[in-house]
Amino acid sequence: MSASQALQDYFREADSWDADKAAALRRSAVVAWRVAAAGWVCAIAGAAAIVALTPLKRVEPFVMRVDNTTGIVDVVPIYAGGAAPEEAVTRYFLSHYITVCERFNFATAESDYDECGAFHSAQRNQAWYAQWTASNPASPLNVYKDGSVVRAQVTAVSFFTRSSGLSDLAQVRYLKAVRHTGGADETFSHWVATVQYAYGVPAKDPKTRRWNPLGFKVLDFRAEPEVSIEAASGKDSRHE
């Protein structure tokens, strides 16, 4: 083999080696880009999954209860407003509402006003504001501005069922006692209120939830003085 032939063979082998090296680099680059693309796809998919799951993440407080006799520990269930509470619970809320919202004491008037608002629907709250605003002559702020104190005491709660089967009406009888400034005696009057109520989702506001943890709502409230049987009989006898 001549020297020129050997030199040509050497150059061909060198070119082949360079070509193989370049092809290997290209294959490595393609693989690297594919791996990077797969990584980006996985990252984007993971971020999308986190964003989709974010609304489902929330902190749920719970109360642990320990039985004093057996020592068994369980979690107190949280009422979410989805089932109708027992009648005794509704009776309590109605009695509490009347006791707080029909009384008046200047020292607790602001707190009572806010607490009653926690039991109102939006429409009932508008009527409540109109009743208490200082521009209303019949507002308790004007009627009892002399320092009189009014207390309310529930005497009976009755429930009614509509013809459709819906039970959302109650009739509450209560006593109002007014003690004027400087006086020791109270003036009594009997009242009857017709209340339309419902249960909704409990409020998220801690203050409102403290007053009304079960989402009890007063939709409509109508109160009027109750005429006693003796008074009605007396009027009839005089008329005759």
Concise structural overview:
The protein is an alpha+beta fold and 240 residues long. The chain contains 7 helices and 6 strands, in the order H-E-E-H-H-H-H-E-E-E-H-E-H. Strands 3-4-5-6 form a 4-stranded antiparallel β-sheet, covered by helices on one side.
List the total number of helices.
Answer: 7
Low-confidence stretches: 236-240
Shape: rod-shaped
Count of β-strands = 6
Descriptive account of the structure:
This protein has 240 residues and is α+β, with helices and mostly antiparallel strands. It folds into 2 domains: 3-55; 85-238, Nuclear Transport Factor 2, Chain: A (Roll). The protein has helices spanning 3-53, 87-101, 109-117, 122-132, 140-143, 206-211, 229-239; strands spanning 63-66, 73-76, 149-160, 169-179, 187-199, 216-225. The strands form 2 sheets. Strands 3-4-5-6 form a 4-stranded antiparallel sheet, covered by helices on one side. A hairpin with a 6-residue loop joins strand 1 (63-66) and strand 2 (73-76). It is rod-shaped, with a radius of gyration of 39 Å. The termini are far apart.
Tags for this entry?
single chain; 240 residues; alpha+beta; Nuclear Transport Factor 2, Chain: A; 2 domains; 6 strands; 45% helix; rod-shaped
